[in-house]
Fold each of these.
Amino acid sequence: MAPPEVFSLSQQTPVTCHAFNADRTQLAVSLNSSDVLIYAREGNDWKHIDTLSEHDKPVTSIDWAPQSNRIVTSAQDRNAYVWQQTPDPQTGHTVWKPTLVLLRINRAATYVRWSPNEDKFAVASGARAIAICSFDPEGDWWVSRLLKKPIRSTVLSVDWHPNNVLLAAGGVDMKARVFSAYIKDVDKRPGPSVWGEKLPFNTICGEYASPAGGWVHDVAFSPSGDVLAFASHDSSISVVYPGGPAVHVIKLSILPLVTLAWTTEESIVAAGHDCQPLVFAGNQGGWEIIGSLDDPHANKASGGSRSGFGGASPVGRLNSAAFNTFRNAAERGISNVPGSPTASSSNESELFTIHQNTITSVRPYDGVPGNVTRVSTSGVDGKLVVWDVNAVTPIGATGLAGKLGKMQLR
Amino acid sequence: MDVSFRKIDIDQYDEDALLVTELYEADPRDPAQALNDVKQKAAAVRSSLAKGDIVAALMLVLEDAPYGPHLDDAKVASLCANLHLQTLVSILNSTKSSEIPGVVKALSTDAQDTLMKYLYKGMALPGWGDVSGSVLLGWHEKLTEVAGTGCIVRAMTDRRLV
């Protein structure tokens, strides 16, 4: 039950995305710019050691292949690059060398992930398509095939099935789908699974709508690949058992979740606009919220005086000093103009959670698929945090209150 | 700076544009049937209210509420939606403010989401019928305390507009 490790990578700019190398000694992030920064672990801190500059619009996603040690990046400039460490012919130093990928998309690339065997990767895009890229040794480049039908809008996230063939995708058309991304020259014919038996390229193995019309922000296969989870902008998380067939929907009383990761076959860590990673657990019989990895009460217990006129504790993010400032202004005519003598200390707008803004990415950090022991999160506040997934604070104590995690079978 | 280019409807040049109607499944009932349902419910609600059973009345109204514009018969559809809102408002108005939290807690999550949609619809129609802003705000406050900001988010994202 180690406390979370907190690193402030930037004070002002958001961390768009993050990816660790295999042994977690190096870290690739983008700080809302067109550059990818490589950090190396030094004791308890991260030291900036390299910058990968090739994109000319903001980077949207990074993935670091653990076995082949290659980085793939996607950006709003509609391009993806595969970066490989090679010795520089002039200096002899090892440098990251980019290879352009021919994506053939006419909108921003939004998300990229290596397949489990690291011989393919999938690039989601705003062009209503997902590019499945594989290496063509004859041409010595990465070629892509597009998954198009029946995608109707921007794809926001993808996740690979452990069999290296199936791909889950979720997007703005409010659907989560499972596709076959079978490439003849790369893949062996996959065995039958709960998702289907014959799987030529672009087979639709499943299509699931978000419960109340929200964008599907993130999708993820369970470690076995037999279950699919997705988080959508209607503040809900859905877990799909295709064999059942059953869809478990948890409607939350808090702001939407935008990212999730499976830690075991029966538990998920998800985070988003409520600035704390939440833990969900369940099985084919049903799912429920267990608690939070963050403990807002413990963090700021000594946080000093908080302007607490309100007796009743509002829900979720409403429980912030900023909210109270406006409420005081509205109800009592007290205006705390920053800089005025009545204004309290500058940390007045601080949230009770460790992350001070939306968490945009949660990824496994430590352990093997099916038994992840630690996860890493990064977000708009410029922080990177590593959490012990077993250090769960039950929801009763986190102040989420109410009927959070009320569950139903659809 | 000239920003008029921002108002160009670029979708008209796109043969495969995504239409609003494709974003949700339409109400399966045809407008006349929906109107009939709404009228029957209004009567049932009146008898529930006469017995003072507010929870039962609210559940009646919030279950299978008509939604979405029926493009083929917009007039009936809007009549239907307005009548339903009127029925709902009659319940809201006849509830004592001290009873609201208990009533809201008794509703299912789906019903809470639908109620939130109606509260916002009511606020969007100032001076319409006997909709009173303070009553709506009172319900909104209590509903948010019970169902959280998630309920508001769902009312905003859901395209199945009431």
Note: The two ends of chain A are 36 Å apart (CA to CA).
Amino acid sequence: MTGQNTVDKLVSKPYKYGFVTDIETEKIDKGINEDVIKLISRKKDEPEFLLEFRLRAYKQWLKMKEPNWADLKYPKINYQDIIYYAAPKKSEKKASLDDVDPKLLETFDKLGIPLSEQKRLSNVAVDAVFDSVSIATTYKEKLAEHGVVFCSISEAVVDYPELIKRYLGSVVPISDNYFAALNSAVFSDGSFVYIPKGINCPMELSSYFRINSGDTGQFERTLIIAEERSSVSYLEGCTAPMFDTNTLHAAVVELIALDDASIKYSTVQNWYAGNEEGVGGIYNFVTKRGHCRGKRSKISWSQVETGSAITWKYPSCILQGEKSVGEFYSVALTNNLQKADTGTKMIHIGAQTRSTIVSKGISAGKSSNSYRGLVQIGPQATGARNYSQCDSMLIGDQASANTYPYIRSQQPQSNVEHEASTCRISEDQLFYLQSRGINFEEAISMMVSGFCQDVFNQLPMEFAAEADKLLALKLEGSVG
Amino acid sequence: MKTECLEWLEQLPSPDGVLASEQLIGRESLRNLGLPKKYSEAWRLTNLKRIEKILKLPLAQSNQYENSIDKNQWPEIPKDGVRIILNNETNYKTNLPNGIRFLSNDDIKETINLSHQSIDETNDWGVSVNKACNNKLLALKVDGLEEQSLEILIPSQKETLNPSRILLVLGKKAKLKLLQVIIGEGKSSNNNLIQIHLDEGSELNHGLICFGKNDSSLFTQACIKQNIDSKYELNAIQHGWSISRFEPRVFQQNGKAKTKLNGLQISSEKQQLATHSLVNFNGPEGELEQLQKSIAADQSHCIFNGAVKVPKEAQKTNASQLSRNLLISKAARIDTKPELEIVADDVKCAHGATISQLQEEELFYLRSRGIDSNQAATLLLKGYCQEIINNLPVAAERWQILNQIIENLNK
């Protein structure tokens, strides 16, 4: 079938974002120990409490073991062979964008993230993180008018220490898991968002993460706080250059929603996935968790996961406030030798809490794609409801699709429903579309797009179109 | 934890009889395994304290059999039916109907070796305990085209550990209706391993009733190997054990076989009942239909873990799994976890799970017809159980299962 040729042709299509920016960077020595942590903290001029936080986390990390329960097999990571801090030289935050190294601006331009505000048409504020530091945050002033704080976490530590002290580590404690502990010890930069009472954030907020150095781990930390009756939509994008070595990315994201607040967090993850033989690529170990503390609060995760050699990621919601709502919409695509073990946790604590899970997994090539999710209804969650749906699509007979939904209920006055299905791109459907004059490639991308529609509908406009294209590109020709 | 297991192994009698080699295998793997551990996925939810107690029980002695078993509650054997009682050696020599015969020792060895190659997982704790301490084996072969029926009764002696093993071979196109009844008594533990080989075109309707009492516990494994065109239907009911764990494992050797697994667990008081099933397709065009139901009352806990594996060879597999759970008390708990691992791309695999209480609308409907709320709830629970109980072989009716369940739930 003609498909097979196109497979080879298209799968070998280079990763678009695989270039390296040739920029002088300041790196510290490889390895992790207390001195390295103190050095990072000193470089960032951090207050004492944060250094203590880091050291406590480090001690905890030393006591912990790397988890091995996920369906992911990868060579042992040597944590002493990683650089924990790298920053472009002359990277001090400048008053205006004109002072930022033009090479950096060029990099982000190439990635389609224009930082210069005059060039921007859409109403999106961007925080761009390059290796370990935040390069620029746009639209800060305009946001400040509304009282919205959007800055890098390093700035927030200096400017809003009381907020950081109160909320950092309150959703994902340092001892939560191995990678969260590591992140808490060495996190470098990330975004901080604070939405004051009663404010609907006037524009979309967005972070863009770029790993540039091959031997540097990226450990960003994001903290979003939505006060009573506020709302915000936040987007996150990631890319990395192509290296033969594996790079570690261990991020922590914490969301806090108080009474009647709502947070929408969308991710398009396109880290470098390694080549067809599985050489190189990012190891993506991420802990994302939202805490619906307030009554009627809402946290919604939507994600499109297409990159990374290894993905280990379970964006979760702790539904504590009465009538709070958690949502999780995910498309995870794996190709070649990628491995993904991803899903969500919905922990219902409060009464009449509701959650919805829609997960679509697409496995192609020799990849393995697992959905692992937990729905837990606690004894106090009277009237709680959950609906979960996880569908898998298999492309080719070398890929595997696994589903492991964990369901636990301790409350009779609650309802949990879970359903799942597996399907493939069938010859009949392909034939039908082709007989209508639609070519092979387009027909497949149309079907995949239709399969993922439930999730794409949840993404912000600009992202949805991008995600659709991304999937089409990643998949083109992988049906033989 | 490991030392307790070693102590237990030391006090076992030295290997003997046709199962001597199996005993050595079981003991060896237990030496490596020790007791189940909390951090292993398969035992995460199990109340391990209750398992430790099991190994403290002495082994049941067959000469004590007559004194320690209460036969009064057993229904009479129908005139043309056959009942084999396990754990009582004199009873092994029952007159079997034409078409069913005991396997010779040579046949037994051969069949056991065959099993080793496929589904008997040596690192399974329950299987290893059975192998280590059991010397009672009932080995049967069914031949011919006529449909046979059989009842195997496995009672427990009080305050002892009762291991037993059944080997059942169905020849080409043979048909059997098997009712297996396991009964628990105070502080006893029952550990049964049944291995079934289904040859081409054979059909087995397997009913399994496991009724415990008081502080009794149960470990039972069913390993089923299916050849092409065979049909296997299991209806398993678990009720009343302090702790029970049922592990059906089906292996469709070359695909193209039909498997139907139905399970019902009803837990009350502080009981913990678990079903861990595994269906492994090893060839194309296999079919699976699985329905697992649980009712958890009082402070009890029901667990279901249903694994389905569809490797590359198993194209055109059609598998469906449904787990339906009723939580009827505020202190009860239900854990359910389907587990699907799929590599073949041209397959239909669906699974679903629900947890809820009795439906308000259904109760209202019955009450508006003049049925009081207790009766209405009972009626709905009966209907819920009936879906599984109705599929049991006819011989099961004499055991009056439904009445006993409802009686216990209404206590």
Note: Chain B is about 20% helix and 40% strand.
Amino acid sequence: MSTAPAAQRARGPVITAWSAVSPYGIGRAAFTGGVRAGERTDAPVDPETWRSPDERACLVPDFDVRAVLGKSGTRGMDRVTGLAITTVRELFAEAEAARCPVPAGEGTALVLGTTLGSAQSQHDFVRASYEGEKPYDVPTRQMPYTLMNCPAAATAIRFDLKGPNSTVAGGRMSGILALGYARRLLATGRTERALVGAVEEYSRSRAWIDRHSRRTAEGQPDPRLGEGCAVLLLEPATGEPDADVPDASADPARTPLAELLAIDIRADVRGDPTSTLRESVSQALGDAEVSPEQVWAATSGELPGPLGADERRLLAELFGEPATARGRGHELLGDTAAVSGVFQLTTLLARAAEDTEAADRFAVLTSVDEDGMIASAVLRLLAQDGGS
Amino acid sequence: MSAQRVVLTGIGVLTSIGNGVDEFTTALREGRCGAGPITLFDPTDFRQQIACEVTDFEPERWVRHTPLEELGRASQFSIAAARMAMADAGLEPAQLRDRPGLVTVGTTDGEARELDQLVESEIADGPERLDPTAVRRLPAHRLALSVVRELGLARAVPSVLGTACAAGNYAIGDGLDAVSSGEVDYALVGGSDALARRTFAGFSRLGLVASDRCRPFDAEREGLLTAEGAGVLLLETLDSALARGATIHAELLGYGLNCDAHHPTAPDQESVTRCMALALADAGVKPADVDLVSAHGTGTRTNDITESRAIRALFEDGPPPTVALKSMLGHSMGAASALGAAASAIALSRGFIPPTVNHRTTDPECGIDCVPNEAVEAPLRVVMNNGLAFGGNNASVVLGRYEEASR
């Protein structure tokens, strides 16, 4: 609980808190415990509840929206919205418990990544149109849930978040895209702080979509789908106050956990995703002025299939096996799609908190998808002495 | 790095009243209305059967390097609008290929139209038999990614913002920040949505769809007309535009974003006023300097009253003319505010106010001059363009006529 020492003065925005709702359970402590234990989280999918084609998946245990959030204002609330609200609730409660509460209101933005919002809500809504007596016999109460911005908007209503409220539809790149977007909001003073994260729900509809769009090779086991939500608190660095943004800086009561140094996002435009990723990582490292040997951990998106394997190999080649071994672990949560990037980061932060060697060293995050999206980020890990 | 002035040098539009900047300009001046019978899904048994569809769209004219069957209609739209914007700016994709860029597309429904069709085939044949090619068209991020890949923009960030019906303005604002700060050299930003049965059914059931025409601010308005379209703007720094002798449609002066944090569907008047005030402060413009408001103006009872009250609260000395382009274009969802910004830029550079068409009697509760039915010649200097969305996601963008002297 102190301001960062001079050697750790940060220039980029800093992550000062995070929480998660994941197959490890609800809240940051459950997530940290899960990372430490390193156990698989997949379990049989109850056929009656889900009517899903999947036999196993990585679900948030016992996550029933109304049981978790109470009956007030949750009637008809879909799973993806419930996951987002619960995660932000946890982040606020944990900050409160650590005696450095996060303000809400006009100075707090929410930037949330997604793939489609809730495929299930959308599916059910239009299905009603086809199957109802009249084509307009649709459940209007559910209409907001068919929109991709519903989790972010509903979270804002619940916690009075009146700053910019943005939904980034980035699929697997959502985490890094949301960080890049939020960094711009902070740099221009459009918000004092940003809650930045991503959310993905498990559903029957998603399971079928994934099954049909998957490109894993014949003979490989089907990936286990995972779900959850993770949210980071991103604040401007305390080190150098920006003349244009006099009041915006991280609350000194919060310990910065990591500094966001560089982001590179691009598309593979020549049918060579691995070379494109190599260029992207190189660009991000160059922008961050970090050399490969300074990298303590490198984490890949763990896309199921050969493309994901190529990504892992490239990181091992660039940064060595010890660094990539430190970057693994989030794959135990299953294929978490939109939230995979933020889970990569929270897994790293949980691990770095328990390893004194991580302090003031660097982490590289990458992600690729089957559509040709490529993303890299470089962060500096800061000493988490005393934690929060 | 100090903020640089950002200008709009390319406009690409697909709308129910005309495609491309020239036809769109003519249509705005003539006050064309794009309403017509729904052809893109079967409207049988719906109580209303009118929408605003993009006609004369030939995707193969615009999509040259991507197999068409890989692209949903909204992605085809965003590619076409991006190509138009680049051509209008006098740029070839190869000139931008290796320069850092941002391609941000706002959308409400992404490829909802594709999901509509998949659900229909699932009902017929079961979920086991869905067409994988169609399923792969679904992810919303393809609306921007498809542009980047089709145009071979090797250093562009593809990004999709899903902030519902204000998404186009969100994208424009993000592009403004990225170009202004020097993070990127150019931005292709806007919005795209294709007509979807799901959205139509929802609005219809809510009683928000008009039976024949959309009449914003009219005493007898019945509601909105759903629509489709795309608007993409090419943004670059003023220095870059001047250096290459580009035609400047308008300068982007600033924007504002906020969230009502109040209600899932009903807009909050004070919050809407605050969003516009944020935009004006960001632009360094006083309310009295605003010559025209391009309203969100959906034509529903609630929106038009709340928004006009919010506008009147901001302009204490009386609001400037306030037009609703949705009277012509319908509500093209995530594309709407991008098309509003395109029309605002055209209004600034050509010196006219596009009208609010289909208008009979202004609702006294709205109390604004909506420039009914006929375009008006006017030397405009500053236009504010609003986008409001379900979920209370508000975004206002301020554009100015390009003038050499710095503000």
Note: Chain A touches chain B through 69 residues (CB under 8 Å).
Amino acid sequence: MSTATERERGAGNGRGAGSGRGAGNGRDAAGPNERVLEPTIFELSSPGRTGHRLPPLDVPEIDLGAAFGTALREAPPELPELSEPEVVRHFTRLAEMNHHVDRAIYPLGSCTMKYNPKINEDVAALPGLAGVHPEAEGEYAQGSIALLHHLGRLLCEISGMDAVSLQPPAGASGELAGMLIVRAYHSDRGNPRSRVIVPDSAHGTNPASVALAGYEAIEIASGPDGRIDVDALRAAVDDETAAVMITNPNTLGVFETRIHEIVDVVHAAGGLVYLDGANLNASLGVVRPGDEGFDIMHFNLHKTFSAPHGGGGPGSGPVGVMAHLAQYLPYPVAARDETKAEGYEYYMDYDRPKSIGRVHAAYGNFLVAVKAYAYILTLGPAGLRRVAENAVLNANYLQKLLAPHYDLPYGGYCQHEFVLSASRQKEESGVTALDIAKRLLDYGLHAPTIYFPLIVKEALMIEPTETESRESLDRFADVMLAIARESRESPELVTGAPTTTPVGRLDEARAAKDLDVAWEND
Amino acid sequence: MPYVPNTDRDRRAMLDTIGAASVDELFADVPAELRTSGDLDVPGPLSELELLRHMRKLASANRTTDDVVSFLGGGVYDTVVPSAVRHITGLPHFYTAYTPYQAEASQGTLQSIYEFQSLIARLTGLPVANASMYDGASAAAEACVAALAVTRKRKILLSATTNPALRAVTKTYLGASGAEVVELPSRDGVTDVDVLGDALGDAAAVVVQHPNFFGLLEPVAEIGERVSESSALLVSSVDPISLALLAPPSAYGAEIAVGEGQCLGAPVAFGGPLLGFMATTRKHVRRLPGRIIGGATDDEGRRGYIMTLQTREQHIRREKATSNICTNQGLVALGATVYLSLLGKAGLRELAVQLASKARYAADALSHVRGVKLRFDGPFFREFVVELPFDAARTKCELSKIAIWPGINCGCYYDDMKNCLLVTVSERHTREDIDTLASALEAIIATGGTA
């Protein structure tokens, strides 16, 4: 097992060669007491430079004054002026300061940071897919519409849902669409109802989406095993319950074994059951949400279906429903008319009078859908099941290795993720989950999700995914064990971390107080 | 299984460590009666070669600007993307990273978003921008949500000259809020300022688009003046390229600027991913949805960047959050940052001048065709509406046979514009492309509607 010191001397942490912390590139533009790793693009600007050339204008140049008069801007916006190599170097130096999946494990719980296959990037860049205008007539976009239609059908098969709209551009958008479908369904039956029940282990987007859809979020406490307390649910459900939002497996990585009972309780009261599909990776080919009894769900193509996370998007959050809700899906929906001749049979269906409306300016994040589609075809049915099996195997293996050294509030076999607590470390030596997260960065690894779910104190939520090898998991476990030892023997190493990253811990409170959200030239 | 390293031997060893007899045992919590029996009905597995062939076949059923001369626009623009943009957004350090939850290991993402915010602030003249939104349409919708919260009023005035998708998405978002969405009528292709005056009384926001869906400049100075006399917020949806030339939203009193940023270095991509942006005044910073990146210093005085003001957000505030939006279009925002950095101050201006010049040239060329006239008189930026002697849908259909897409059929969105086309130019178009469109139109008009 390597120690932190060895690692610090060794592989480094994704920093640019030679740019040890604080060294930057010698610039000191932010003030006498502040050191800068990479100046902003604005500081690198030099008048007269440009990094792009347009073809020469071959029509008469417009007389701006005559054309636009007082609508003109007084002074041009102060954009930076750099040549192409300077721009490329700036962003490459920034890139080198990032941790990323291509480098090492990125075990953020509920984020499913799996490897992003390279071929998917290639197919999404095909000019015939990337270059189609959304206003192209359907007969000239048959490939794109067919792809959306096929992907929708595949997601239905994988999930057991009956219909899918690929319009929501992110998981949270899919949740909003789902909640608006709930509202439309109940409104059609005379009363939109007023409340949506959300377990206390839910993602924060759930209650936020509930509120945006005009509902009151009612939180119910989880039972001692981390699962929904069915009695508490039964007590909370009434004829004002529009829906219950469930994540299954939940954010503790536990499967809701009583899901059938839960669904029955909600359905008996006339409510709908919504699945937050963030954790679908554990279910691929193993169990289908539609078979579990869910009425609505959203998918995260950037989690389960390998589309890259992009440093925070673009994602894709298709919403799926059972047949009785299909008419409410966001419009337009990619559809197929088999009576039409080849080359004309796929179309975007706008004729959906009961639809909740549009949630995106076009058809959602099409290129993300392309990557998910490519991924599903590459895997095939056996491959999809292999994903779930290995995701769950990897999580259980890691849980087993780590359980003796950290508290494990909810034991037993986990699904795709598990949640540890650093309560022991905090009590023994004052080392918190945050400290452990920061110390992991020193070892060149990414931290788990921390302080979530909210029901676990000092939570470390770990989702390794199926694309990590046994060696990678062993390495992560070794480091976590080393940090547990450091926490006992020399806690200052942990509480003082990170020391090998480009910057140390940043002062969040001061940053929120002295707000600096845009660069201003001196 | 190319993406799963574990072999049977690995699995055996790992199961031994776990103390489980089989992988199946790990799924013991999943009730047996719910388990999927047998394989899913999904095609594959495909090798890379098979996948490529299949995807190329799908792609070949599409047509792009490589195949046709297209004048489609309406918010999504087929711009020339400098090669360096794709190379930077293609760095795995950016595209395989996630939201910068661990700031110390995400400085690249954080600083580039900070630079994006700074660029949006400079373009719009408003000091605070967020880290991006899904698209221009949902950005406008979220601006309305913010305005409802700021003013505590319940009415949104949405100009009929804004993009139809923007209006549709805004209505969806506000559908459950109890707020009333009223469409402001237009006159001569722009928002009717007189009607606006009467409607302002109890409005939370007035949403205009400048240049508007028809490409026309709105009377923003007058609108800004009227709105400033009320307690409503002016929300202006802007084309970022136009801001190289046109007065920024801050100059006419808009308190929130939003817009579609796809034209900043992203492909048309069948409409996604797009890139929404939003900027506002310091006063309303806490009403902004989504991520905001701020400058910070570490314990040794080094400058760095973090996600700031997180108490607005759903992962902390839950149902009291300003929005449910979390991460959204990070990589597209990075692309926009690289794009604007490459074009720079002079390059963006030159592009804007080219677009305005080509639009003017095209409008002149088309309106010289007998039977074709400009629908509106006002100044326009990169697109304009022409009225034909007959149905625009038929015209499109005929011209597409000779590989010309003349523009968007306005009749799809406005009942009284069945004969109108929204024609958009781009820096890709040569004079010859525009002349070709004019002569093709002339030809089909001469023959009464067939190419």
Note: Chain B has 14 helices and 17 strands.
